[in-house]
Amino acid sequence: MVTTRSTLALALGGTLVLTACNAGSGTDDGESTGEGGETTEAVTIGLVAEPSSLDFTTADGAAIPQAMLYNVYETLVKLDQDGEIVPALASEWEVSEDNTTYTFTLVEDATFTNGDPFTADDVVFSIERVQSDAWTTSLAAQMDIVESVEATGEHEVTVTLSQPSNSWLYSMTSRIGAMFDEDGVDDLANDPVGTGPYAFADWQRGTSLTLEANPDYHGDEPFFEEVTLQYFTDPNALNNALLTEAIDVIGTVQAPESLGEFEDGDYEIIEGTTNGEVVLSFNNGRPPFDDLQVRQAARHAIDHETLLDTCWAGRGTLIGSMVPPTDPWFEDRTGDYEFDVERAQELLAEADAEGVEVALRIPTLPYAVACGTVVESMLEDAGFEVTVDELEFPATWLEDVFTAKDYDMSIVAHVEPRDLGNVFGNPDYYTSYGTSELMDLLEAADTGSADEQVSNMQAAAALVSEDAAADFLFLLPNLIVAEEGITGLPENAISESFELARLARE
């Protein structure tokens, strides 16, 4: 972790107008004044990529679990800051010798924010709901392996899998493991009901999302009674908001070249890693990227070191495949396709695809826009004819690229943990890959021993890379800047959640 603390004196040019959306009016010491004159501890966090909905059971996009998971909704188990699986709504669990039966002992004093107690029946309802038509996102397939779930006591649940799985418990730390109340799912998009340390308070679409501390939370009381997630589309406006004390934390720096603005100031800078692979996606299901040589040409055309330096100020990690260094089966695969423009041109000629026209359709997210122009230039140097199309994110990109697969190439960060199988192991996914060879490796990894899981996942990562299923531009860094005194900020972002209950002020 990099931390700098000193005094900042900067002359700022320009004007920033923000719409305040706290429950009360903010004060300089981080307190919020309510209508009755009382003061509460409050914090405002600046982020990008506002959620399109608050319902991650029917809408995709990382912004929803970033705000909702572990904060409003809890899971039976969750990931700690070291990536270990730890108790949450389950105080403990046992696994059968054949690795197919899980018995969870539940905490006994948890309640939903509508007042209903959390019981084993809610676990049964939540898991079975993932397997039903109510869940429409592709991640729900991770629950297919569950053969049965039974309430074996008011606070005990037994889950039986159809076969051994090394990944199922880990998946239960993600959004598919969220626990719901049967009486609280009528309007998940606008009125989420969970057991977490925070409750939904207000959503000013296009501006902010406000959560308030859950007064009946079963765990430790969070320090901040009110948290506002303020959304920005302009990276410079996000920086200026912190510099002008309009926000307290930049939760995800989107202009890494500007970190110098904060390095000599009274700020804390955190630089760690994430599991967010920035992927140059190929549509493997249609020409020209259904041709291996065209995909290989695109991979050889990208100078990854120059790209990282140019579009993300050198911040991040080159990985070469769909596995971050925090996963136990990571291998450096950056040497699989070295930068070689002449080889890229040869491959296009061999494929009779010189001058092939491709549509690079990217979301309006800072990293994608910044890297899109670099990728366009490098591909054209190799002989591609590239048209860049920026699509509003999340709605238009999700509709046109993710759902309709109306694209040739795209650039997007996949931030779900251990997501190689999700992105490339399903031929119906937007990448249209999912070969039988890869799916066999993924199944062998999931059902085998721990050592077999590692070796087969390494083989899967090698296959995805060597077959040029996509190009892997870089791994996003975890870059956070906060006013001095904010504690509990994550050094590494390795789960889907920005866990707000960890935060405090000294």
List the defining traits of the structure above.
506 residues; alpha+beta; D-Maltodextrin-Binding Protein, domain 2; Dipeptide-binding Protein, domain 1; Dipeptide-binding Protein, domain 3; 3 domains; 10-stranded mixed beta sheet; 4-stranded antiparallel beta sheet; 20 strands; disordered N terminus
Would you mind describing this structure in some detail?
This protein has 13 helices and 20 strands. With 506 residues, it is of the alpha+beta class. It folds into 3 domains: 124 residues, Periplasmic binding protein-like II (D-Maltodextrin-Binding Protein, domain 2), CATH 3.40.190.10; 111 residues, Dipeptide-binding Protein, domain 1, CATH 3.90.76; 204 residues, Dipeptide-binding Protein, domain 3. Strands 1, 2, 3, 10, 11, 12, 13, 14, 17 and 18 form a 10-stranded mixed β-sheet that branches. Helix 6 runs antiparallel to helix 8, helix 7 packs antiparallel against helix 9 and helix 12 packs antiparallel against helix 13. The longest helix is centred in the C-terminal third of the chain and has 17 residues. The two termini are 18 Å apart. The N terminus is likely disordered.
